[in-house]
Write a sequence for this structure.
């Protein structure tokens, strides 16, 4: 089983996140970053599949030099090798361009050893659009089975459970396929100390756009279909409304909830 | 480091991370995350109820590689002394009791076997202890012999090829949950260490309750009533008090870092509290007296961290002298408890509850101040190094 996991290096959600004032892109320089927590579930799931059988997990990221940390963390968890696509021209890319770069990288990874499964998180914790998995599947011509809270890989197929508001679906796709996973699917492991030391010896390839045959005009801020025009910090939270209970507290609360369409 | 903008964490201000190698930082980060996920949410409850899910924790810590992490071989992770210290720091930022579990397992019980044991003893115990499947304790202190272990009354006498062990040990961390106890005893041929499976007839380990400190830690008495052990139970490579003292040196090294974890957690809590807490219509943090306290505590925390990292580097480059370990333990525990108490004043009444970690840390540090060598003993070790005069008795 040859699995590629797409991971993203994101600004730490615990820190004060903001935009770069020069071009209104996410500020990645002044905030400590980390492997997107939602992608840890994807790495863990891929590792469990390979550990239960055989195969190799390649982690793939697109991002600036600092994004190497996301690969490192994945390798420390147990992934076998990493691919880091880094090119100045990618800065500011939207989901469409990102999916293009990822797709070309996955094709290149699969050139020698065909990829059976692509696993992604359900969304990034910074952009939070959640569209890259389906865009990527479309570009690769793979079935997309998304938002998996369980994943069973059996011979030539992948079966997921997707939990909806009113129903639970069981969906099967033939391999090769793309699966995005939710934070319900597993409990990501901590990198063990042995894993941390072993990761240093694992291979990481560095590719540019030229290596992938992608023209710089297809990516980056200028090629983006959307851009951030302005941004405003959220105003500080105002003090809540205190309801004094004079025997009618319940009614007042119900009225408040109704008025704000909470019930 | 990224361009620093206020508010900064105390150690960020010192940029001590720049003194820590990449591997050690990765190890530190993984332990920090474990503590955030697994210890912090529950430790106040453990403390209040005076219980610790030690077996579960030991297995989780074993999977990470924490137990005996600074030892080589036998399933141990073989990390640097600095990495071990940083792991202790992060664990103690959670709770001194959790760090104590790890110190006793790795630095006392496992180290004793690793350093002084036979090949058979190492093969039998170390891999299971590294994995957290077997828990160890270390019996040196006795009811009447703490700073003066040479006076111990526990005795091992020969009976044919066997040993018969009799005596009491006191204040033994992990005692009641241990699978194996390293027990030190007087023999006809100096003080010797014994590897005692805790299911051996005549061995019991009643838990000590009613503690006001280290409540999230198992503390026990060890009672040995004519415990019969095979001749192979003795640690062959330890003769005399230097055997147990070599182990204590390892544990003390971890405490040099560990105590700073408790202090850091208190200080970060106090800063956050002072910024939120309004008093006379202004944040408590905006008052000069508060800032003076925070600045002074930050200085001591940072100085302690610089000392710890310096001693860690010395240890990694060839080893540190016991008197140097005493420098670190004396300073860092003494400053940590002072920081914890000062932080309590910033939190006011809120500081006395388990809602905040401050008084829990302060109470824990009361034990850390006197175990593994009291502050007074460390002063005397340093005094002896400076003057050549031993003033212990």
């Amino acid at each position: 089983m040859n699995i590629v996991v797409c991971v993203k290096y994101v600004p730490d959600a615990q820190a004060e996140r903001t935009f770069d004032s020069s071009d209104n892109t996410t500020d990645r320089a002044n905030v400590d970053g980390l492997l997107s927590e939602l992608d840890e579930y994807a790495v863990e799931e891929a590792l469990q599949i390979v550990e239960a059988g055989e195969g190799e997990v390649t982690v793939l990221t697109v991002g600036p030099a600092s994004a190497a940390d996301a690969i490192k963390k994945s390798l420390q968890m147990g992934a076998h090798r990493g691919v880091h696509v880094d090119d100045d021209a990618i800065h500011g890319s939207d989901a469409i361009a990102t999916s293009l770069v990822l797709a070309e990288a996955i094709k290149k990874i699969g050139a020698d050893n065909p990829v059976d499964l692509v696993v992604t998180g359900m969304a990034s914790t910074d952009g939070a659009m959640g569209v890259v998995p389906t865009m990527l599947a479309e570009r690769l011509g793979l079935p997309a089975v998304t938002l998996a809270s369980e994943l069973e890989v059996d011979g030539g197929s992948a079966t997921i459970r997707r939990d909806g508001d009113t129903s639970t679906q069981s969906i099967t796709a033939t391999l090769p396929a793309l699966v995005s996973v939710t934070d319900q699917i597993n409990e990501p492991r901590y990198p063990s100390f042995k894993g941390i030391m072993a990761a240093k010896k694992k291979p990481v390839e560095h590719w540019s756009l030229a290596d992938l045959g992608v023209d710089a005009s297809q990516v980056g801020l200028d090629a983006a279909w959307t851009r951030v025009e302005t941004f405003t910090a959220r105003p500080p939270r105002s003090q809540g409304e205190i309801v004094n209970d004079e025997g009618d507290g319940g009614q007042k609360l119900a009225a408040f909830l109704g008025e704000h369409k909470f019930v | 480091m990224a361009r620093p903008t206020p508010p900064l964490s105390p150690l960020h201000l010192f940029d001590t991370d720049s003194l820590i190698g990449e591997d050690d930082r990765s190890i530190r980060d993984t332990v920090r995350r474990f503590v955030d996920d697994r210890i912090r949410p529950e430790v106040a409850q453990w403390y209040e109820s005076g219980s610790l899910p030690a077996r579960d924790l030991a297995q989780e810590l074993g999977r990470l590689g924490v137990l005996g992490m600074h030892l080589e071989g036998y399933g141990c992770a073989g990390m640097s002394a600095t990495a071990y210290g940083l792991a202790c720091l992060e664990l103690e930022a959670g709770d001194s009791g959790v760090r104590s579990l790890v110190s006793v397992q790795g630095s006392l019980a496992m180290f004793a076997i690793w350093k002084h044991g036979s090949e058979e003893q190492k093969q039998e115990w170390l891999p299971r202890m590294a994995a957290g499947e077997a828990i160890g304790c270390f019996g040196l202190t006795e009811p009447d012999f703490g700073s003066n272990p040479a006076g111990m009354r526990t005795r091992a006498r020969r009976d044919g090829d066997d040993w018969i062990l009799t005596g009491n040990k006191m204040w033994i961390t992990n005692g009641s949950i241990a699978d194996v106890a390293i027990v030190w005893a007087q023999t006809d041929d100096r003080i010797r260490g014994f590897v005692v499976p805790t299911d051996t007839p005549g061995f019991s380990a009643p838990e000590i309750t009613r503690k006001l400190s280290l409540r999230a830690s198992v503390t026990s008495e060890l009672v040995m009533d004519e415990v019969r052990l095979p001749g192979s139970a003795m640690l062959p490579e330890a003769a005399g008090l230097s055997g147990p003292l070599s182990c204590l040196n390892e544990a003390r090294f971890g405490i040099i870092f560990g105590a700073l974890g408790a202090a850091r957690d208190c200080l970060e809590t106090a800063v956050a509290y002072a910024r939120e807490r309004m008093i006379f219509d202004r944040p408590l943090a905006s008052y000069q007296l508060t800032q003076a306290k925070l600045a002074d505590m930050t200085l001591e925390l940072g100085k302690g961290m610089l000392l710890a990292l310096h001693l860690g580097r010395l240890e990694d480059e060839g080893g540190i002298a016991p008197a140097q370990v005493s420098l670190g333990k004396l300073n860092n525990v003494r400053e940590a408890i002072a920081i914890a108490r000062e932080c309590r004043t910033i939190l006011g009444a809120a500081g006395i509850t388990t809602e905040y970690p401050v008084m829990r840390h302060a109470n824990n540090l009361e034990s850390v101040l006197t175990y593994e060598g009291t502050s007074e003993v460390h002063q005397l070790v340093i005094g002896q190094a400076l003057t050549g005069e031993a003033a212990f008795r």
In short: Residues 2-223 of chain A form a domain with the Rossmann fold fold (CATH 3.40.50.620). Chain A touches chain B through 15 residues (CB under 8 Å). Chain A has seven helices and twelve strands.
